[in-house]
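User: We ran a pulldown and think these components assemble together. Before we commit to crystallization trials, I'd like a predicted model of the whole complex to look at. Sequences follow.
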Amino acid sequence: MNALTVDNLSVTYDKSPVLQRVGFEIPEGSLTGIIGPNGAGKSTLLKSVLHLIPRLTGDIKVYGKPYKEQRNLIGYVPQRSEVDWDFPTNALDIVLMGRYGHIGLFRRPKKKEISLAKEALKKVGMEDYANRQISQLSGGQQQRVFLARALVQDAQIYFMDEPFAGVDAATEKAIMNLMQQWKYEGKTVLVVHHDLQTVEDYFDHVLLLNKTPVSYGPTQQVFTMENLERTYGGAISFIGKSAQVIQERG
Amino acid sequence: MSYGAWILLTGCLVGITCGITGAILVLRKMAMLADAISHTVLLGIVGAFFVTQSLNGLPMLIGAAVVGLLTALFVQLLDSSGVQSDAAIGVVFTSLFALGVVLISFVGDSVHLDVQHALMGEIAFIPWETFELNGMNMGPKAVWLLGAVLFINVALIMLFYKEIKLTTFDPQYAALIGIPIMFIHYLLMGMVSLSTVASFDAVGAILVVAMLIVPGATAYLLTDRFIVMLLLSGFIGVLSAVLGYFSAVLFNVSIAGAMACATGVLFFFALFLSPKYGFLTKKLRNKMLKT
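Assistant: Here's a predicted model for the assembly, 541 residues in total across the polymer chains.
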């Protein structure tokens, strides 16, 4: 069964197309890395699939049904820089926000939600920071708070926007553990990723994107020098080391 | 109650109503939109007067709420059609306010409604504008109006507490999990409009901005908890009203002006002495670390 089906998705900013006729199907239980050069529309793809920015055209189905009916199956880890961390609250409170969709209108988080949130913080190694003001956390710790928030959402499909960007080793490990756990539970994960060197370690599927999908499929088949050249065009020389790694492997 | 006590009570109600609501605006970085709404509600008040030929509480509240929401809507429309957001606020705010100023000239001398009054308010007149129920004097109209708005605002914040918090911190994520972010936005704009119009008679359009923004900005410096910030902001509003009232009596100056000044004085105290963010506190802490 396909967890996610995207059909004929196009997005424009001020008349210039950012995504053109994007279509792909993501099988349930896969770990997909979305790879492409700067300006390829990776984050735009994520946000338009999640209905956070308007689409020109495009049909998005989650487990065969329209996105809007399946909202509660969706988990999201945004880029850390998209929120103001000076907001007056602590880490536990942010994690609790992941339960708001389940709690419903007019109700408050109860003991059950609080213990779920504490558990999630523990899973990402942040149990000692539950009561810490969020502006006092390091970048990696803030990222882990967002991970814990996604975790308590108990979603079926997780979307992450550059989670590995500028994080410390502990956070990288936490993200990897979580992705493996989700895969083990049969959940589907899509990650916007920019570091070509780690693609083969992290993901079993790869979506190569440059405004339109260049290739999609299992990492072994799709993550080839030839496909990368087609995706990155002239910029391929900047890839340097990782290109070498692939050539050596091949 | 004595006239002084009524004035003080009115000031405190303005302080707490605007303080609690304004704290949310400060966090949402919408202080300028509050400034705009506080001016454009004048049009709503004048409009309500033309429809009902009186300055009654309820039509005024409705008129102000409508124009306040229209202000927010127009700003949103201009913003999304490509106008810079601060320019969008500037255009909408001045044109709707100007329309109110023009229309006010058609109001006869028989009614106490003029530009001077709209801009500055006159809290000293509040105790005379009383309202009667079955022949009983129920006290000043403004106190009842402010009390009702305070009740509405607190009730709405309690009902939508977690939605307001999440849409303020991370609107994208809120939209993702299905929270109607535009509804919350217009709800807050409605609350600002009501607070403004209820405070209008007392402090006017300019000084109400001080009561909306400064207590929230002060509370922001003093706490790391959302709920504490809202309550503290309300408290700072009340404290400003009390300090302002007594200094106005002492120095025989404008009461509303003194109240607004008091918010500024409290803000600078917090700016210098806040345990976490204060200039002096930081200097002192650095000095202690060095030795």
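Chain B has twelve helices and two strands. That may be worth checking against your pulldown data before setting up trials.

User: Thanks, that helps.
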